[in-house]
User: Fold this.
Amino acid sequence: MLKFRDEEGHMEYVWIYGPAVLLACIALFITYQFVDPAPPTRLTIATGGPNGAYYAFGQRYREILARDGITLEVLETNGSLENIELLESPDARVDVAFVQGGTGGHARGNTIQSLASVYYEPLWIFAREAVALTRPSDIISRRMSIGPEGSGTRALILELTRDSGIDENELMISDLVGQAAVDALRSGSLDVMMLVASPASYLVQELLRSDDVKLLSFVRMDAYTRRHRYLSKLTLPEGAIDLSGNLPPDDVALLAPTANLVAREDLHPALVDLLLEAANEVHGAGGLFEQPGAFPSPRFLVFPLSDEARRYFKSGPPFLRRTLPFWAATLIDRLALMLLPLIAIIIPLMRIMPPIYKWRVRRRVYKWYKELRKLESEIQAGAHDDDTAAYDSDLARIDSEVRKVKIPWAYAEELYQLRLHIRYVRESLDKQLSDIGRQPRRPDTLKSQAMSNDALEDAT
Assistant:
């Protein structure tokens, strides 16, 4: 079986479609300059001390993000104020942090955004059984632990005491924190320990079960919540910690800020969705004070809510994120912008390129019709003995040139039609000569070409 290579057709494709492909590539390159970069695969979250809830939740976030190929480094800190400082520092390269409600005023600029509040963090006030605290001023001259420097607990306590007209210098603040403060409270070295923590904190659980330590109810709660909108009033019901041991023995009124998940304003948008999905998995089931589905929430925020987080709370995770792995959804989302110029360029090109290609191919055939038509007009005007050989020579030349034309097989019909038309003109010449009683005089080469035309007629 013979195989033909349509080299001329290939070249037409190159000349016609080559510029179109080049134009599309240029448009893609220009558009790519406006496409967001790929999200980083490593993040750092500032939490708190190794015994605190922030640190424990950071570990859970790390496990969840690892499923999507994101490495989350959990950084131990002294608490919320240090976390804010780290987020604002260009050298620390902390991307995300847990921050206690009410600490936003310690930020120096506006480069931090809230992603969500994630759970209530009650303010727990534990005192020795022998210590009587009925008014805010009763804490003066009491040995107290209110968290380390840089912690949200210390910042909140000092703000609330200032509201009550108590100066920080009047307080006997101990340097003991964490487990050391718990041991000192139980041994009598401390009178009061205050901490903002999740009820799941092992420090809170230990103190709630200590016989010589009592949990105090907060007084004037409505006044504080009106004054500080980031605070909520909660009730720890009797027996909520331990029904069999009836802990606590009475309902306890607590003030509570919320823990916020916050981030640098330049955090990649795709990671906002990923972090909020992790927050929903960790905190969405609710807790001792939270109803299922109440958190993560766009309320009780420390900093302004990010635009990506606002979209998430309004519409949920993007469609691609719900149906595809993170890396695939992110890639498609980034490249979606590049589809716009492609659509704007390729669709018009798809409509105009085929007609242009067809015209260029047929042009190789049709350009001979002008010369053939002119020759036919001359023959019809009158044929003489001296002109016969010239007409035959012109027809032979046209036929020879046409035989060299190469076009794609899909357009071969036009080429064979042209050759039939050449034969028709030759027959017209022969007929006109026959009518006037003359015989055509052709060289041998012309006779062979005429025989070839006869073979063409037999084939058609």
Summary: Residues 1-9, 443-448, 455-460 have pLDDT under 50 and may be disordered. The radius of gyration is 44 Å. Residues 351-459 form one domain. The chain has three domains: 35-119+259-317, 122-256, 351-459.
